[in-house]
Amino acid sequence: MMMRRLPRMRAASDVIGAGSLLVLGLLYGVLAVGEGIGTMAETGAGFFPLVVAVVLVAASVTLLVQGLRGTPRGEPGPQDSAQDDAQDDAQDDADVHWWRIAGVLAVALLVPAVGATVGMIVTLSVSVLLAAKIMGVSRWTSAVILGVAFGAATWLLFVRLLYVPLPAGTLGLV
Questions:
Q1: pLDDT value of position 103
Q2: Facing residues of 38 across strands?
Q3: What residue spans define the domains of the chain?
């Protein structure tokens, strides 16, 4: 009986995760279109977020279909036994930290929720900082350096190199 429940639990967590990412991708897409996508010659602030949203939605739909069908993520080798698979599944389910998943999803929702108001670079920097702490970066200084570096790299790539205007927000920070 235990061997039958583990694959269902795995499939349920896959469906929940893929469904959450699908909703997040659709939200990003709607908000990106609201920012204006521009044209290929002159991209708007929402162009690259829309590209990310499309990729996220496509990947999420693929994972959601696999989860609903019960398609395994990897095929076991010929030397694997059913008992080894059941033990591996039990260990994988025990390793899931749902609070981390919920925390990272909450931080990801921070970007579309306040990015246009606070400023995209500031929001992305704070989001990366918070996600790093949630995922286990122990030192605050390391998380702050990671957040600032990500914000600087984003600014350099989009604003300076690609000439993509990002929402500056009420703070006037790109």
A1: 86
A2: 43
A3: 1-96, 97-174
